[in-house]
Write a structure and sequence with these properties.
The chain has about 260 residues and is of the alpha/beta class. The chain has a 6-stranded mixed beta sheet with strand order 6-7-8-3-9-10, sandwiched between helices. α6 packs parallel to α7.
């Protein structure tokens, strides 16, 4: 297994990271039914990079993402998002942080069918009572190939176009980080490739930090970096890898 992953992030890398975990642990259940989902995990995600998290089922990859995004809380340790320690925030503060500083792209598109593409993209800003940056919206939609689809409702869009709308929605608030949870899981291979290429482009050209959980080596190959997990721990990482290289590493984990 590739031994490149440090088990403890250096202070300088943590302070410069878009998001970082310091010795976080997470368990579910009690006594004989306890499941240790995360075991003393320390890792940092540099700003402007596209990272994939992979591992066998039950390895802790989704739990790690949920804790990093403030969707779940760690039992111990610290999580820093843009320099903010989120582990001590209450529910209301976490809600504001997710709304203002985090973007999400899920396997399901989560679009409201009665709204147009543009209205779906701008909905989080509208709900927060904010003002949409029209120039930024236009730039995002042009890059994502949505400029001529903004008046269409979800049922008038292909699956790939619907997921592009979800990506645009995530980008609109210029978040510290975008989290993707199997974002191409409901797409055919061509549409999936288009969305992954757009995520990579948003990282390379817009400086957007992206963290994606996936089981697909092809999807992970679009990332700058692949982090490997097993039994709740980080066990290795790969840089700019091919699907075959990733698949080989996963096979050593029994995935």
């Amino acid at each position: 297994m590739t031994p490149n992953l440090s088990t403890a992030a250096a202070p300088s890398s943590v302070s410069a990271a878009a998001v970082a975990a310091e010795s976080i642990n997470k368990s579910y259940g009690r006594d004989n039914t306890t499941v240790h989902a995360l075991r003393d995990v320390s890792v940092s995600f540099p700003s402007g990079r596209f990272t994939a998290i992979m591992g066998p089922s039950g390895s802790g990859k989704s739990t790690l993402m949920h804790c990093l995004a403030g969707l779940d809380t760690a039992d111990s340790g610290r999580i820093l998002l843009g320099g903010t320690d989120i582990t001590g925030l209450n529910d209301a503060e976490l809600t504001r942080l997710r709304r203002d500083r985090v973007g999400f792209v899920f396997q399901s598109f989560n679009l409201i069918p009665t709204l147009t593409a543009e209205q779906n993209i701008t909905l989080p800003v509208a709900l927060a009572g904010g003002q949409v940056e029209r120039e930024w919206l236009q730039q995002i939609c042009t890059i994502l190939g949505l400029a001529d689809r903004l008046s269409h409702r979800p049922h008038e869009l292909s699956g790939g176009q619907q997921q592009r709308v979800a990506v645009a929605r995530a980008l609109l608030t210029r978040p510290d980080v975008i989290f993707g949870d199997e974002p191409t899981g409901n797409l055919d291979s061509r549409s999936g490739a288009e969305v992954l290429a757009l995520l990579r482009r948003s990282s390379q050209e817009m400086g957007q930090t992206i963290i994606m959980v996936t089981h697909d080596p092809v999807a992970a190959s679009y990332a700058d970096r692949v982090i490997l997990m097993q039994d709740g721990a980080l066990v290795g990482e790969l840089e700019r890898s091919t699907p075959d290289t990733i698949l080989s590493a996963l096979s050593q984990l029994g995935a």
